[in-house]
Structure to design on (941 residues):
């Protein structure tokens, strides 16, 4: 009994989502073979030859490889350590692990990068200043402006993603596999090495692959930490081509972007293959599952200290450093003098700065309107994919996850080639469309699980017991969807408020957004103003999260 | 037009309901799956009597659930007519399709379909709320029904915080609360563990007998079908193969498929030798078998003899050559607690037999066995 509306639903959604995800890619490809942004001109390979024969290009590839693989290893090793402690040992205060896995997603990457810069830069990084004073050193012991500095910051940033892949895999595999190893006389450590880790291999590989994809797309750390140290990776190289120098060359940016896009798409394909294989590999036993907990004995509290330290580094330190810096005229180690010099001057300046205020306004608008529109689109897409299930819904599903593998800056260049031909160019709507296109998977994922949860039996039983279509929608379907809608909205809104990579390409005078304004402050070395604006940004996303959660709770209560 | 809806809001004090028969005529339905046409129902004619427990039994994919869903209105047949009592709820010819919410039926789903965002009270009250019954009446009826299924005091529990058996009873309470004339059950016990399933089966039987309600029960479990039903309809490949009481189906089935499906059976191929007389005489690989004259068969016809394992009797010593006495060798003997399960080889044929646990037998023994001709039935292939 398919109605006409549901029959046309899937094709029209395919058209919308294909426009959002395929259009920038097509424009990127066209652009890479064209002469200039204004007019395509003749088909030419000039841009490819120019960009790939650039003598610096080899260095950039080496830097990118070291940076992405290094970050992947840092993030995955830390995540393995944390996941193992949490799921398999009797370490105290396990709630900390949840915080570690979720909260860092709330801290915008650019602020995280800046806070590490403020701590470890060689001229006036707080930790460097402190160590120089204490040990009377001539030189700063740490230099964040290095590949290892970038890897450290990016690895910590991607730790939550790695943890979210590894922890469930670690928690769900059959304990009897380990027990049988121990019965055969192997020690805990030997069991870990010979049984546990090999079984987890698909999850570990998936985590490494995903972090590589993420760090390849990463722009915050390479721009804030890498660029001042003249260490360029693909994303900052593209940024350099379009944002610095005499003339922005979008053709060359597109040509370079093609390799980033191809790498990222291939890796994402591998990741999906691995997680699919992983489901077969990791044996989840429904019967007799009980996690045997390993007693850490004396190592319990030292190990916990490491975890507590990590959570400090991930959550508390960045916020504290920003707050501290925002109150000072210049960087100095905390001292009586420093506290005496504290003032609200930076805050006052930011709140009087018209561009900063405009960026706050724009980001709040993009966060609220963008997330709302994005969630509405996600609801329709998930409904078509999960509930209508025509042969075309498979196409829709793949399309809607396509942008997951797109590096933001590359897709920004693709959108630039498109928007420059439309009246949307340099308007806030171009950012809005770009945001929704790039972050659609963040809305789709929670809503898909919400729709899957609404088993058709739940709707059918409502119909049998006298509920018409609309009544069923109101009493059964929507209440069950609300948690998914709320988390989809929160994910999208927080992503939009702090969006950087797409915005550095698409943002023009008049459409400044928070993260881009923060990047400008970083480029000018205005750390105090940057910190003040950064904290405003954190406050905005936190309040959006709180408001959305409260509305969600209220809506569910009304239904009851 | 919809008498059932008026009855819903009635303030009748008992859970008893008026009788309602279900008539199904020439109902067919096809599915298309992966480009292939699958026949789910093929020209089904069925009259389901009022106030009885009627079971649709069959292997998975036989169309029993599709038939149930056609009755309740969740599927639309491709052809035929369905009437609940006097009201036609589906007719291809007359272009009638009454949607499920207007049919006034109740259904217990295999998954229970308990709404996870509501507590027990709201789940059970739902059918009354959709019928816009007054608040006090809803409260009174929900309380009474919860008492009936022994879930008093569970009103404010979130539905997801219940055990499987309790969820099952919430589903039953929801089905009963509006006092429907017909309740449909879609394998309601298949998600319970074995012990609970047995208890719930007995409870359900007691509930339904007490209520005098028309129940249509779908299952693939023969024990459930035999123990719960007043009438069983066995289905295969979208068709009704045989209808009868549990005993008729078990002892006197006409069909090899039904005899095999309803219980463990020795099915022995043979040919009719003599069709007249007190017994039908069949020539088979194990010898001549005297059978119950349950079907018309002519000499020379190829048939199958069905002998249930529990009717094979072991005889002490060599007691000569009577009718239905066979000699064989005990091939295997497994003690299963309340009985032995034996396999007896007669020539090339293996017969399974249920032997009393006190029997003094061991594997390899030469044995003599006897089957009462009244318990040998001839079934068509």
């Amino acid at each position: 009994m398919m109605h006409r509306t549901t029959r046309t639903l899937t094709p029209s959604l395919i058209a919308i989502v294909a426009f959002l995800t395929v259009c920038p890619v097509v424009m990127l490809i066209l652009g890479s073979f064209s002469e200039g942004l204004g007019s395509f001109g003749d088909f030419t390979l000039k841009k490819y030859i120019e960009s790939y024969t650039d003598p610096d290009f080899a260095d950039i590839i080496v830097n990118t490889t070291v940076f992405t693989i290094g970050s992947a290893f840092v993030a995955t090793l830390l995540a393995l350590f944390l996941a193992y402690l949490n799921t398999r040992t009797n370490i105290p205060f396990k709630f900390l692990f949840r915080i570690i896995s979720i909260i860092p997603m709330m801290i915008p990457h650019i602020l995280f990068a800046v806070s590490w810069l403020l701590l470890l830069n060689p001229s006036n990084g707080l930790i460097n200043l402190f160590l120089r004073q204490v040990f009377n050193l001539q030189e700063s012991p740490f230099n964040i402006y290095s590949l290892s500095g970038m890897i450290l910051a990016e690895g910590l940033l991607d730790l939550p993603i790695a943890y979210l892949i590894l922890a469930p895999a670690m928690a769900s595999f059959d304990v009897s596999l380990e027990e049988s190893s121990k019965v055969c006389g192997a020690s805990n450590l030997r069991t870990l090495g010979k049984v546990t880790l090999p079984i987890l291999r698909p999850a570990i590989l998936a985590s490494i692959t995903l972090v590589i994809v993420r760090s390849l797309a990463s722009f915050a750390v390479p721009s804030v930490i890498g660029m001042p140290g003249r260490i360029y990776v693909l994303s900052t190289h593209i940024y350099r081509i379009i944002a610095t120098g005499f003339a922005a060359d979008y053709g060359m940016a597109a040509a370079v972007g093609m390799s980033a896009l191809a790498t990222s798409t291939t890796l994402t394909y591998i990741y999906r293959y691995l997680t699919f294989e992983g489901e077969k590999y990791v044996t989840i036993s429904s019967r007799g599952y009980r996690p045997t907990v390993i007693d850490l004995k004396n190592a319990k509290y030292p190990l916990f200290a490491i975890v507590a330290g990590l959570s400090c580094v991930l959550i508390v330190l960045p916020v504290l450093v920003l707050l501290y810096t925002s109150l000072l005229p210049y960087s100095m180690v905390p001292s009586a003098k420093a506290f005496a010099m504290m003032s609200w001057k930076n805050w006052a300046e930011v709140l009087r700065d018209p561009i900063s205020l405009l960026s706050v306004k724009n980001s709040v608008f993009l966060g609220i309107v963008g997330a709302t529109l994005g969630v509405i689109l996600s609801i329709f897409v998930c409904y078509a994919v999960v509930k209508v299930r025509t042969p075309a819904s498979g196409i829709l599903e793949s399309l809607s996850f396509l942008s997951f593998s797109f590096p933001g800056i590359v897709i920004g260049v693709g959108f630039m080639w498109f928007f420059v031909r439309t009246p949307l160019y340099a308007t806030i709507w171009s950012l809005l469309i770009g945001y929704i296109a790039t972050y659609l998977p963040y809305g789709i994922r929670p809503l898909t699980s919400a729709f899957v949860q609404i088993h058709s039996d739940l709707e059918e039983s409502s119909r049998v017991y006298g509920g018409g279509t609309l009544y069923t929608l109101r009493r059964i379907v929507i209440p069950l969807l609300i948690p998914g809608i709320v988390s989809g909205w929160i994910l999208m809104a927080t992503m939009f408020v702090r969006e950087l990579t797409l915005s550095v390409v698409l943002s023009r005078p008049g459409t400044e957004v928070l993260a881009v304004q923060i990047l400008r402050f970083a480029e000018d070395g205005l750390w105090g103003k940057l910190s003040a604006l950064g904290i405003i940004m954190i406050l905005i996303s936190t309040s959006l999260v709180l408001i959305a959660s409260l509305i969600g709770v209220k809506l569910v209560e009304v239904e009851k | 037009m919809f008498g059932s809806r008026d009855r819903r809001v009635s303030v009748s004090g008992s859970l008893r309901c008026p009788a309602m028969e279900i008539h199904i005529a020439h109902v067919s339905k096809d599915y298309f799956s992966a480009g292939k046409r699958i026949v789910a129902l093929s020209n089904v004619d069925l009259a389901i009597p009022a106030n009885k427990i009627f079971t649709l039994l069959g292997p998975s994919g036989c169309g029993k659930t599709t038939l149930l869903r056609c009755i309740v209105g969740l599927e639309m047949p491709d052809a035929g007519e369905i009437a609940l009592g006097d009201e036609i709820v589906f007719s291809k010819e007359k272009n009638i399709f009454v949607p499920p919410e207007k049919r006034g039926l109740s259904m217990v789903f295999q998954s229970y379909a308990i709404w996870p965002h509501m507590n027990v009270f709201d789940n059970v009250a739902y059918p009354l709320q959709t019928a816009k019954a007054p608040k006090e009446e809803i409260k009174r009826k929900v309380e009474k029904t919860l008492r009936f299924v022994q879930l008093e005091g569970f009103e404010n529990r979130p539905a997801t915080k219940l055990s499987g058996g309790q969820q099952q009873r919430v589903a039953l309470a929801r089905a009963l609360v509006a006092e429907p004339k017909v309740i449909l059950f879609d394998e309601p016990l298949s998600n319970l563990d074995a012990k609970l399933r047995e208890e719930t089966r007995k409870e359900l039987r007691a509930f339904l007998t007490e209520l005098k309600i028309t129940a249509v029960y779908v299952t693939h479990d023969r024990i459930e079908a035999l123990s719960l039903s007043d009438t069983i309809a066995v289905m295969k490949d979208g068709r009704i193969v045989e209808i009868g009481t549990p005993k008729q189906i078990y002892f006197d089935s006409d069909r090899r498929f039904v005899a095999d499906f309803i219980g463990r059976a020795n099915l022995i191929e043979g040919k009719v030798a003599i069709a007249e007389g007190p017994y039908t005489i069949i020539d088979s690989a194990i010898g001549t078998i005297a059978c119950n004259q349950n079907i018309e068969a002519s000499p020379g016809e190829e048939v199958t003899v069905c002998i249930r394992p529990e009717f094979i009797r072991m005889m002490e010593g060599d007691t000569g050559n009577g009718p239905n006495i066979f000699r064989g060798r005990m091939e295997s003997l497994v003690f299963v607690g309340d009985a032995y399960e034996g396999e007896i080889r007669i020539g090339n044929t293996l017969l399974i037999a249920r032997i009393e646990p006190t029997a003094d037998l061991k594997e390899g023994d030469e044995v003599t066995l006897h089957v009462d001709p009244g318990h040998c039935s001839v079934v068509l292939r």
